[in-house]
Amino acid sequence: MHRLIVYLNPANQSSDYEIERQPALPLGLFLAKVRHKIATDRVIFCQFDRQCDRNRIWKQSDIDYLQQITDQLATVLSAYYYQRHENHHKIDFKKNVAQVASSILQQEKDIVANASKNLEQILQISKTAQRHLFSVAHTANTQIKTALTVSNLKSELNQTSQSIYALSDRTVNSLEKTALTAKDLKNVLDFLKLDRA
């Protein structure tokens, strides 16, 4: 797990206490705990220990963000330490920490706002993709209907062609029969002519 090591005496850097982030503790609650601890105990130095994330419970973005926060706090704490011990001039430490905390809170709000914008963009992309899928599905459905219509027309054309062939056969047979009948009539007429003679 990661620790924020806080020193009251930077000369020997003996840590008076450590703030640890347990695996189940959300980042926001951890930062609130850090701010409260630093603001109430008037610490003058803090250091973020990156070397103890053995279980890898922190994302790299969380680590970078917390490092940025501790750097900002360290600036305020250093200023407080030197002004108090070298210039013998007390400053309102809690006010300075509050200003830094306000800045950090604004950064967190910006992060949330950016996340909301990103989510909105994802939703828009999702809606566009959904409309595109509906369009593709509609086009595919139309193409299937067209293919079925073409298939039905082809079947009907085959049936019509077969009907034409059958009609042609019947017509040829009828013509052949008519020709035979005409020949028979001619023979009868020829016979009658011979009979009269």
Structural commentary:
The chain is mainly alpha-helical and 197 residues long. It has a domain at 3-91. Helix content is 74%, strand content 8%. The protein has three helices and three strands; from the N terminus they run ββαβαα. It has helices at 27-41, 60-85, 93-196; strands at residues 3-7, 15-20, 45-49. A three-stranded antiparallel sheet has the order 2-1-3. A hairpin with a 7-residue loop joins strand 1 (3-7) and strand 2. It is rod-shaped, with a radius of gyration of 48 Å. It starts with a strand and ends with a helix. Residues 1-18, 42-58 and 84-93 have low confidence and may be disordered.
Major pleated sheet: 3 strands, antiparallel
Shape: rod-shaped
Major β-sheet strand ordering: 2-1-3
Average pLDDT value?
64
Helix/strand order, N-terminal first: EEHEHH
Termini, distance in Å?
137 Å
Radius of gyration: 48 Å
Total E-strand runs: 3
What's the helix count? 3
Structural class, judged by helices and strands? mainly alpha
Query: Helical proportion?
Result: over 70%
Q: Proportion of β residues?
A: 5-15%
Low-confidence runs: 1-18, 42-58, 84-93
